[in-house]
Amino acid sequence: MDFLFIHGAGGWLDDQPLAEELRTRLGVPVAMARYPEEDMSAAAWFAELDRQRDALGPDLAIIGHSFGASMALLRLGGGWHGPLPRGLVLLATPFWGSEGWQAEYALPAGYELPAGLPLYLHHCRDDDTVPVDHLDRLAALLPGAVVRRHETGGHQFAGQMAAVADDVGLLIS
């Protein structure tokens, strides 16, 4: 099984500790490519996500953070080719189109993930980058998601990666 970590916007360096902690806790490689931070279009990020998916193979789990999490959700809702991943574990996912957040990345009306795809949504209440109310909006849109609210940890999940690794581990069995 392969693991793909999709970093946040401008966060390739900032998110390295998250991917490294997952590698350490899970004892497996976690791929983390550099997504095109100079081109924040969904098309550019989808192209890299597709390239990574094809390189890693069909037995894949996706972990996404912030903007990267939202791109994984958007891609899985339409335009995904090949076998579905074993699941998604998403951290601090923005709900685009809500107050002040660009609608160009919004999930379309009637959005649904493929049936049976496990989804874990993690968010820290003290996140000062993506407000925790984004989690509530996503949970309402995706009623099958397992929702994990952490009291502390901020946007970079300080002290919370054990819980994230536990959910990623559930996708292995």
TrEMBL record:
<keyword id="KW-0378">Hydrolase</keyword>
<dbReference type="InterPro" id="IPR029058">
    <property type="entry name" value="AB_hydrolase_fold"/>
</dbReference>
<protein>
    <submittedName>
        <fullName>Alpha/beta hydrolase</fullName>
    </submittedName>
</protein>
<dbReference type="InterPro" id="IPR000073">
    <property type="entry name" value="AB_hydrolase_1"/>
</dbReference>
<feature type="domain" description="AB hydrolase-1">
    <location>
        <begin position="3"/>
        <end position="110"/>
    </location>
</feature>
<dbReference type="Pfam" id="PF12697">
    <property type="entry name" value="Abhydrolase_6"/>
</dbReference>
<dbReference type="GO" id="GO:0016787">
    <property type="term" value="F:hydrolase activity"/>
</dbReference>
